[in-house]
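Researcher: Please translate sequence to structure tokens.
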Amino acid sequence: MRILAIETSCDETAAAVIEDGRHIRSNVVATQIELHRRFGGVFPEVASRQHVLAIQPVIRQALEQAGLDNVSALDAVAVTYGPGLAGSLLVGVNAAKGLVFASGLPLLPVNHLEGHIYSNWLAV
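Model: Translation complete:
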């Protein structure tokens, strides 16, 4: 089973392809550290606007790194639904919804905190 996982709960836009629940086929992260440095921390509105710009290229790169031509090679799409910054979460959730509506794949909602716990069992 191949799952595209999307994470946008704060200031980093990330997508990964996970195979069989444990193996990381790709992991792409677009950081916003330099963008927020002048604010002394994450500025929520700036973060969500940057996610809008980064989400499609990050997803595309994650699929390419995993050796997949398009979403039809996937079995599901997972996305962080919370907790996190509301605007940032909306970008990731809406990107995931667009993919599943267009492809017919199932959508798997992921709690950000539970994701941290289960990430201990992933292997590169």
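Researcher: Any highlights?
Model: The first strand starts at residue 2 and ends at 7.
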